[in-house]
Amino acid sequence: MTEQSGQGQTLDNLLTESRTFPPSDEFAQQANAKADLYEQADADREAFWAAQAEQLTWETPWNQVLDWSNAPFAKWFVGGRLNVAYNCVDRHVEAGNGDRVAIHWEGEPGDGRTITYADLLREVSKTANALASLGMRTGDRVAIYMPMLPEAIFAMLACARLGLTHSVVFGGFSAEALRSRIDDAQAKLVITADGQYRRGKPAPLKAAVDEAVAKTPSIEHVLVVRRTDTDVEWTEGRDVWWHDTVDGQSDQHTPEAFDSEHPLYILYTSGTTGKPKGILHTSGGYLTQTAYTHRNVFDLKPESDVYWCTADIGWVTGHSYIVYGPLANGATQVVYEGTPNTPHEGRHWEIVQKYGVTIYYTAPTLIRTFMKWGKEIPAKYDLSTLRVLGSVGEPINPEAWIWYRETIGAARTPVVDTWWQTETGAIMISPLPGVTPAKPGSAQRALPGISAKVVDDQGNEVAAGGGGYLVLDKPWPSMLRGIWGDEERYRDTYWSRFADQGFYFAGDGAKYDLDGDVWLLGRVDDVMNVSGHRISTTEVESALVSHPTVAEAAVVGASDATTGQGIVAFVILRGGVAEDEAKGANAIKALRDHVAKEIGPIAKPRQIMVVPELPKTRSGKIMRRLLRDVAENREIGDVTTLADSSVMELISTGLKDTG
Ligand code: 6R9
């Protein structure tokens, strides 16, 4: 999320995309969501959300749907009490679905585990008993620093069951990142593993915990899952093995109900400046909206679907769409431990074929990587079970959308482009499959029950065809309840930009097309200003990706004596395109002309560089800040949040080689 808000005039709206894909009659007829969902929600928003909340099991009903009297601090389902883990596990077993598979777990080395809902109930109960035996009490914070193992999910649900607040820290983060997060939340326990498989090799994990915990006196215990048999240092009394502590516990545990606003978890997002923000989510509203969106946006049929979200549980997508939403709905899902090209570039498609995956949810960065690897790879597998494809994390370029639908979805499946944030907790803007005629590249419309607007600098809604800032103008059930321990920062970061109107400012630029559909245009900090025109990086990137030789593009504005900023583009070629040829002066000119044709001469990049990789965060978002350093010939800034810190070197050396 951004700390500062954009200023100046609104964005120029340049790229046009007119292809649409209406849902098939067959899909529409069987779809969970029907068009009247929008009307129902518009007629009475609170009644609509109450109806969604009724899909959960409450111990005590609420007496008020929404209390917004202390805005921007919301309370949803006031007075209601429920247990989140009971809703995700026990109630499915009680309903007679204990034999249904909850998790098909696939390890990176090829090992696997099948976990039914009855198994899940036993494991979560044992874990809850173990956490209680370690002295954890309702309200305590627990850090979870783990690879994608079933135990990570057991741990999250055991916390929810006991009313402990978890803080999952992505397993690729450093000891220092873990330390600052433990410290901020004053966590008492860390759950981790000895090591984790990464690209076919075991890598140590507990070592980073030892380093972090040496400087965090709040930690009383470290609970360690054995995964890779890596040698670990051991601090007697503090460190305990999972198999010693959890396995022998009783598999019976009676859940207690907690207040609807009981803190469920903290998840840290890195800001552009300063220390990471601990985004706080609570129970009833969060579970209501994650379950509702998962059911309608993915058209989930729990009895027959096999769902797979490829995110890591270290990100909000893993929290809402691996753990809470799908499990609240009683889904059967695949959880995969490893990387997409271990041991080969067809691994995801092999998994889709093996488990008969029907719903697949991933990020544009991975779709563009698949494009780069080439369509021959998925062509080797049977992907005919797929019926819904989803995208999240960044704007999806129309060409990548088309490739996804055609190559993975056999030109048949709906593709849902879902816009949301760690802060929103659940999907906010997305087509509904079976209802919305899909438009490649557009997230389209706020979901029933959600209200979003594109506004200008003054907070006035822009007309159809106009661009500006994306805001959320009404509270929603899964909204963040604040930043852990920092009320002021919460108000400043999200509510000060449009304080007069009381809008939540998301930090993203967006536009309406002539039908009123929303297009996301990237973070407002990334917007370029060329000769007084505010141009979005996303639009120029999408134009580049629509050229047959380009798999992926990142665009930045570099200072320019004449135009204020000049557009500099970095492109990755598609598989099979000869690099020498594509780097030639004619090929580069062809790309520049292509952008001019797609968008207009004003958007023509000043410079285009062919690169082997792009700098990305560990959740796959392009870090344009570092590319700006390259484009402006500056020393490259802080690379600690990069997924692969050698990428910048690769880019700089590659550029020197070609001049
Ligand atoms: C869920 C997640 C949030 C930021 C958000 C925006 C970008 C996410 C998007 C999208 C365009 C989409 N973003 N989904 N942009 N289209 N479908 O990614 O959360 O890690 O907090 O990132 O990601 O810029 O503001 P988070």
TrEMBL record:
<dbReference type="Pfam" id="PF16177">
    <property type="entry name" value="ACAS_N"/>
</dbReference>
<dbReference type="InterPro" id="IPR025110">
    <property type="entry name" value="AMP-bd_C"/>
</dbReference>
<feature type="binding site">
    <location>
        <position position="508"/>
    </location>
    <ligand>
        <name>ATP</name>
    </ligand>
</feature>
<feature type="binding site">
    <location>
        <begin position="417"/>
        <end position="422"/>
    </location>
    <ligand>
        <name>ATP</name>
    </ligand>
</feature>
<feature type="binding site">
    <location>
        <position position="531"/>
    </location>
    <ligand>
        <name>CoA</name>
    </ligand>
</feature>
<dbReference type="InterPro" id="IPR020845">
    <property type="entry name" value="AMP-binding_CS"/>
</dbReference>
<keyword id="KW-0547">Nucleotide-binding</keyword>
<feature type="binding site">
    <location>
        <position position="317"/>
    </location>
    <ligand>
        <name>CoA</name>
    </ligand>
</feature>
<protein>
    <recommendedName>
        <fullName>Acetyl-coenzyme A synthetase</fullName>
        <ecNumber>6.2.1.1</ecNumber>
    </recommendedName>
</protein>
<feature type="binding site">
    <location>
        <position position="341"/>
    </location>
    <ligand>
        <name>CoA</name>
    </ligand>
</feature>
<feature type="binding site">
    <location>
        <position position="550"/>
    </location>
    <ligand>
        <name>Mg(2+)</name>
    </ligand>
</feature>
<feature type="domain" description="Acetyl-coenzyme A synthetase N-terminal">
    <location>
        <begin position="36"/>
        <end position="88"/>
    </location>
</feature>
<feature type="binding site">
    <location>
        <begin position="393"/>
        <end position="395"/>
    </location>
    <ligand>
        <name>ATP</name>
    </ligand>
</feature>
<dbReference type="Pfam" id="PF00501">
    <property type="entry name" value="AMP-binding"/>
</dbReference>
<feature type="domain" description="AMP-dependent synthetase/ligase">
    <location>
        <begin position="95"/>
        <end position="484"/>
    </location>
</feature>
<dbReference type="InterPro" id="IPR042099">
    <property type="entry name" value="ANL_N_sf"/>
</dbReference>
<comment type="function">
    <text>Catalyzes the conversion of acetate into acetyl-CoA (AcCoA), an essential intermediate at the junction of anabolic and catabolic pathways. AcsA undergoes a two-step reaction. In the first half reaction, AcsA combines acetate with ATP to form acetyl-adenylate (AcAMP) intermediate. In the second half reaction, it can then transfer the acetyl group from AcAMP to the sulfhydryl group of CoA, forming the product AcCoA.</text>
</comment>
<keyword id="KW-0460">Magnesium</keyword>
<keyword id="KW-0436">Ligase</keyword>
<feature type="region of interest" description="Disordered">
    <location>
        <begin position="1"/>
        <end position="26"/>
    </location>
</feature>
<dbReference type="InterPro" id="IPR011904">
    <property type="entry name" value="Ac_CoA_lig"/>
</dbReference>
<feature type="binding site">
    <location>
        <begin position="198"/>
        <end position="201"/>
    </location>
    <ligand>
        <name>CoA</name>
    </ligand>
</feature>
<dbReference type="Pfam" id="PF13193">
    <property type="entry name" value="AMP-binding_C"/>
</dbReference>
<feature type="modified residue" description="N6-acetyllysine">
    <location>
        <position position="621"/>
    </location>
</feature>
<keyword id="KW-0067">ATP-binding</keyword>
<comment type="similarity">
    <text>Belongs to the ATP-dependent AMP-binding enzyme family.</text>
</comment>
<feature type="binding site">
    <location>
        <position position="547"/>
    </location>
    <ligand>
        <name>Mg(2+)</name>
    </ligand>
</feature>
<dbReference type="InterPro" id="IPR045851">
    <property type="entry name" value="AMP-bd_C_sf"/>
</dbReference>
<feature type="binding site">
    <location>
        <position position="523"/>
    </location>
    <ligand>
        <name>ATP</name>
    </ligand>
</feature>
<dbReference type="GO" id="GO:0003987">
    <property type="term" value="F:acetate-CoA ligase activity"/>
</dbReference>
<keyword id="KW-0479">Metal-binding</keyword>
<dbReference type="InterPro" id="IPR032387">
    <property type="entry name" value="ACAS_N"/>
</dbReference>
<feature type="binding site">
    <location>
        <position position="545"/>
    </location>
    <ligand>
        <name>Mg(2+)</name>
    </ligand>
</feature>
<dbReference type="InterPro" id="IPR000873">
    <property type="entry name" value="AMP-dep_synth/lig_dom"/>
</dbReference>
<feature type="domain" description="AMP-binding enzyme C-terminal">
    <location>
        <begin position="539"/>
        <end position="621"/>
    </location>
</feature>
<keyword id="KW-0007">Acetylation</keyword>
<feature type="binding site">
    <location>
        <position position="534"/>
    </location>
    <ligand>
        <name>ATP</name>
    </ligand>
</feature>
